[in-house]
Specification:
Length: 87
């Protein structure tokens, strides 16, 4: 998530960038939600809260962007993918 936040901040500060397109590196979907196996590794509620808070910061960066950011959706798009595309 830190890498995504860094890239979104770069989009805003780089005068050579006029807009951005979010794409998935997955061959058969855009974003289909959280990895349940990974979620099971979160040790406690506080850690889960911090992860959710970081996710919301990323969504805020997209929603409050001064430059257009669009999503190129291919295949299924669920969960967090819908949140990203709704912004």
């Amino acid at each position: 998530m830190a890498e995504i936040a860094e890239l979104l901040n770069e989009i805003q500060s780089n005068t050579l960038v006029n807009s951005a397109v979010l794409i998935s590196g997955k061959p058969d979907n855009f974003i289909v939600g959280a990895d349940i196996t990974w979620l099971q590794t979160i040790p406690d509620a506080e850690a889960g809260y911090q992860i959710a808070k970081e996710g919301h910061k990323i969504l805020d960066l997209i929603a409050n962007s001064k430059k257009p950011i669009v999503a190129a959706i291919h295949g299924p798009c669920l969960g967090g993918g819908l949140e990203v595309t709704y912004l």
